[in-house]
Design goal:
Distance between the termini: 42 Å
Radius of gyration: 24 Å
Number of helices: 19
Structural class: alpha/beta
Strand order of the largest sheet: 2-3-4-1-5
Number of strands: 11
Shape: globular
Strand content: 5-15%
């Protein structure tokens, strides 16, 4: 099985250089996963005492598989990819992997995964190893009884076994159900949870500095705007030398581009038969209609349950309230959590009719036309993330009154140092009026009654501060 060229993956994004972003024959570095690798190494050491079951989640293309392979590099490791095919055929693939990696024969042909798993749990008592099961949620389509069988085998053997079981899945709702649903057989069995997140802002800078040393602030914002730091998207664009806003749009919006169908491919399985309703909600939020009333006016139905599931079960949207608001506040706004999906719904999904007639050039021009305004909104998210990455602020948010007359883009509070930053964010520094910002800040401080005795710093943040 060839990990280096990604042959264990299906789909257009899963071939070619799938693993090369992190490690290839040219020595390309593995970026920004030191903490995760340290944690996984610690788990592996604990597995030498008793079995460990680690659940690794994260959106598709985020780099879960690469992380697990990198963390277990040089160790005895089995890699099982759960494809949608008959269980006996899967077991045949898995048996070959066991024979190759563990150098042990398995007598007879095994057609049941539970039989194979039982064998491996017992084998690890004397021969410790790592077992990665990728796309673990796919057993629902292969044989759902696998989960209850695994529960029984795990409970009987976990105290003696020395297996380091790493379970990865990209359909978030199903992984959530398998391990956090109180009525599910594997509820409470996982010993560790890990969510793989996008690259941080400083990592995007590091990547651009290495592969495009003369990058500009605009290049950095464009990479963040279109990818949100999702590893696979970053890798594809860097591989194809799409470093600028124009270059990225040219590459993403073309005939047969894998990016065109990516949003639908990611989410249809998550949403099932109601995907059109969810898509309409997400598209509405992506274009800036961010209150429940405005979204319902478009969808023309009550959407409370859909919003709850999008936030809680799918982790696709965030519900925000003004900083220091009470928990029960109804002054709520919604935003998509994922930069790429925000772009996909704002432009590709919305203008699907343009793509249907093959007018790719027209859509590229339309995106370029709207990019300054669109990226201005993403610039605010960039600074939120940047402030959070500094890990010196205990609360970060924004403020708006119910009428929307008094809005502050960013407020960052350090309760330890008794300091707060109140910031206005604009692409163009010349459009920031510090006197108006201070007036807004004074109004906010009086209305909230918070931050008494704090040192308040008013700042303007623009492209030059990236």
């Amino acid at each position: 099985m060839n990990y280096r060229n990604g042959q264990f993956r299906n789909g257009q994004f899963g071939t070619g250089h799938f693993y090369n972003w992190y490690f290839n024959n040219d020595g390309m570095r593995f970026f920004n996963r030191e903490k995760e690798i340290d944690k996984l190494h610690g788990i592996q050491q604990r597995s030498l005492e008793n079995a460990q079951m680690t659940v690794v989640t994260g959106r598709r293309r985020i780099g879960k598989t690469q992380l697990l392979l990198k963390a277990t590099e040089g160790e005895t490791t089995l890699y099982f990819f759960v494809a949608r095919k008959a269980e006996p055929l899967l077991c045949e693939d898995f048996q070959r992997e066991v024979a190759e990696k563990l150098k042990v024969p398995i007598m007879g042909q095994i057609t049941s995964f539970s039989v194979l798993f039982d064998y491996l749990m017992k084998l690890s008592i004397e021969k410790p190893f790592n077992l990665i099961i990728d796309e673990f949620q796919e057993f629902y389509n292969v044989n759902p009884s696998v989960y209850s069988d695994m529960q029984k085998i795990w409970d009987l053997n976990k105290d003696k076994s020395k297996i380091n079981l790493l379970l990865s899945g990209s359909v978030y709702s199903l992984m959530h159900k398998i391990f956090e649903g109180a009525k599910e057989p594997l509820f409470g069995r996982a010993t560790n949870f890990m969510k793989v997140r996008p690259f941080r802002t400083f990592t995007l800078k590091e990547i651009l500095a290495e592969y495009h040393p003369d990058y500009t602030k605009e290049d950095l914002l464009a990479l963040y705007t279109f990818t949100g730091g999702v590893a696979k998207y970053v890798q594809v664009l860097i591989d194809n030398k799409a470093f600028t806003m124009e270059g990225i749009i040219e590459y993403m919006i073309q005939e047969d581009s894998t990016f065109i169908g990516e949003g639908k491919n990611m989410l249809v399985e998550e949403f099932g038969k109601e995907y059109t309703i969810y898509f309409t909600i997400l598209a509405t939020i992506a274009r800036g209609e961010n209150t429940r009333a405005k979204i319902e006016a478009v969808v023309e139905k009550e959407i409370g349950g859909y919003l709850t599931r999008l936030e809680r079960d799918f982790s696709l949207i965030k519900k925000t309230t003004p900083i220091f608001s009470k928990v029960e506040s109804k002054n709520v706004r919604y935003e998509l959590s994922d930069n790429f999906l925000t772009f996909w719904f704002r432009f590709i999904y919305k203008y699907g009719y343009i793509l249907e007639v093959g007018a790719y050039g027209e859509l590229r021009e339309l995106i370029k036309r709207d990019y300054p305004t669109y990226s201005g909104r993403i610039l605010e998210k960039y600074f939120y993330q940047k402030f959070a990455e500094e890990q010196i602020y205990t609360r970060i948010g924004s403020f708006w009154d119910r009428k929307g007359h008094n809005e502050i883009d960013l407020i960052a509070v350090s309760e330890i140092r008794k300091e707060a930053v109140i910031a206005e964010i604009k692409r163009n520094e010349a459009n920031i009026d510090m006197e108006i910002l201070k007036e807004k800040g004074i109004t906010f401080l009086k209305a909230s009654g918070e931050l008494k005795g704090y040192e308040i710093k008013y700042v303007g943040l623009s492209m030059k501060d990236l």
